[in-house]
Amino acid sequence: VSARRFSGQVAQSQTALVAVGPALHIPNAFSPNGDGTNDSFWVCNYGYAASGELSIFSRTGQVVYQGDLAGAWDGRSAAGQYCPEGAYLYMIKVVTRQGSQEIHSGLMVLLR
């Protein structure tokens, strides 16, 4: 984060995300445009899940990605074609560290 002081000098600071206890962090958007920032959709597993599966669906219900929870979707279909911008549904099936099974789902946005 940077801010400009009244004197015109730029002040810089850094922020760190600290997860307290086990958690899943699921982003709500990503931009696979090759700029090196947010180029893939992946779930941050902070000690919450022992295992899991990530599935991504188009608005018409077609599976466009399916893989292990540790994997990442690069915005391409299984055939290697670029998926269009828009909203996609994710579904995450996990087995927690305590052994229970859970399903997490929601929408995320692909931006180009």
Could you name the key traits of this structure?
112 residues; mainly beta; five-stranded mixed sheet; 9 strands; 0% helix
Written account of the structure:
The protein has 112 residues and is mostly beta strands. It has a five-stranded mixed β-sheet, with no helix packed on it. A two-stranded antiparallel ribbon has the order 1-2. A two-stranded antiparallel ribbon has the order 3-5. The protein contains no helices and nine strands.
Summarize the structure.
By secondary structure, this protein is an all-beta fold.
Task: Show unreliable segments.
Answer: none
The best one-word shape is flat
Give the ordered list of helices and strands: EEEEEEEEE
Which percent bin holds the helix content? under 10%
Radius of gyration: 17 Å
Overall average pLDDT: 90
Total strand segments: 9
Strand content is: 35-45%
Q: What is the rounded distance between the termini?
A: 24 Å
Count of helical segments?
0
Numbering strands along the chain, what is their spatial order in the largest sheet?
A: 4-9-8-6-7
Largest beta-sheet characterization: 5 strands, mixed
Specify the structural class. mainly beta
Helices and strands, with pairings:
Elements: E1 2-4, E2 10-12, E3 23-25, E4 29-30, E5 44-46, E6 49-57, E7 63-68, E8 86-96, E9 101-110
Parallel strand pairs: 4-9
Antiparallel strand pairs: 1-2, 3-5, 6-7, 6-8, 8-9
